[in-house]
Amino acid sequence: MVSTASLKALFEAEFGQSPLFFRSPARINLIGEHTDYNEGFVLPAGIDLYCTIAIAPSGSNECTLVACDLEERVSFDAHADIKSEAFWANYILGVRRAFRKRGINLPGVNAVIRSEVPVGAGLSSSAALESVFAYAFNELFSCGLSKIELTKIAQESENEFIGLQCGIMDMFASIHAQENKAIKLDCRSLSFDYIPLALGQNKLLLFDTMVKHELASSEYNTRREECNAVVSCLQNLGHPVQSLRGVDMTMLSAIQSNINPVLFKRAKYVVEENSRLNSFAEAVSKNDWHEAGTILYQSHEGLKNEYEVSCTELDMLVDAVRGMDGVWGARMMGGGFGGCTLNLVEESKVDAIVDQVNGLYLKSFGLKPKHYIAGTCNGASAF
Ligand code: GLA
């Protein structure tokens, strides 16, 4: 974890004042992939890789942000509504804009940012950045917004300012996470339950492909359109559905001949993934690791063959662990086309699994994948 002392020293040297400290974590998603924007269910958790900031009001209309990992410094007017040339600063400008849309004109701030969340690994580094600033602004200026509203602010920054049509899962997890719990979130009503994540002798092991293919954001938006197209088709046929959440396999099978086969398999994946989430949560609650792992593999197959958001590197990592001693199951995680796989494994076998996977991946792609043992943690907070 980033040391508070070093962040404090940096902030004081830079701005000559004392800061407050906030942090917000990366997220994993156990299951329920590409279901959030279809108003379905997701099962994310916060993991102990944080985006941490030292921040204080600047006492003027000026905002100055220092990204110490990138050694970049950006200044802008507190009321600016234009994009910065520094890509990372736009996530914060977008958050400020979302506050402004709610009638809250945030004063200027000074901030130093340090993030442990790897960029491009599918662990939601941008959601952690947006979430920590949304949370900090709310506290610093006593805006009185709820966590749900802060989550919506973070998502709005991404959707409206950055221009990525992501769902709400990432920022929801970064803000609401609780240690040793996963969040079962209903993305239609935004109601949620914390599910105990008691994994017994097991661990969640992540392997990072170290790639992020270009296709990621364009295909993400295409999947959203494909899902919406199925909903429109159902509506035209008289079904009163608002999203794929309201669709089941009987309804879908009945319109199979009316829709393009590609759209059919996209929708089938979403409908099945929603029901897999419930089966997975049940298996975990019964300590049935074999069943939980089998469901993870099924989710991967759906993402690979029906939703088609996987890639060679992710498939290789999942295939590599299949049948390996100590592995219950694995799947790609997040938006796809790169990033991490999530593996449910026996703790005592972690080292052997990592060694074998490293060797196989190196042989196939000339790269050593990074790995993380995902420890769950609390969401956005001051500390
Ligand atoms: C990305 C998006 C999320 C979600 C996942 C897929 O992480 O930001 O909103 O759609 O992909 O489950």
Walkthrough of the structure:
This protein is α+β, with helices and mostly antiparallel strands and 383 residues long. The protein has 2 domains: 4-198, Ribosomal Protein S5, domain 2; 202-373, Alpha-Beta Plaits (2-Layer Sandwich). The protein is 43% helix and 23% strand. It contains 11 helices and 13 strands. It has helices spanning 4-15, 87-101, 125-140, 147-162, 169-176, 215-236, 249-254, 261-285, 289-306, 312-321, 350-365; strands at residues 20-29, 41-42, 44-57, 62-67, 72-77, 109-115, 181-186, 192-196, 202-212, 327-332, 338-346, 370-373, 381-382. The strands form 3 sheets. Strands 5-4-6-3-1-13 form a 6-stranded mixed beta sheet. Strands 10-11-9-12 form a 4-stranded antiparallel beta sheet. Strand 7 (181-186) and strand 8 (192-196) form a beta hairpin. Helix 2 (87-101) crosses helix 4 (147-162), helix 3 crosses helix 5 (169-176) and helix 8 (261-285) packs antiparallel against helix 9 (289-306). The longest helix has 25 residues, at 261-285. It is globular and about 60 Å long. The model has no long low-confidence stretch (mean pLDDT 96). The site of alpha-D-galactopyranose (GLA) has 11 residues, from helix 5.
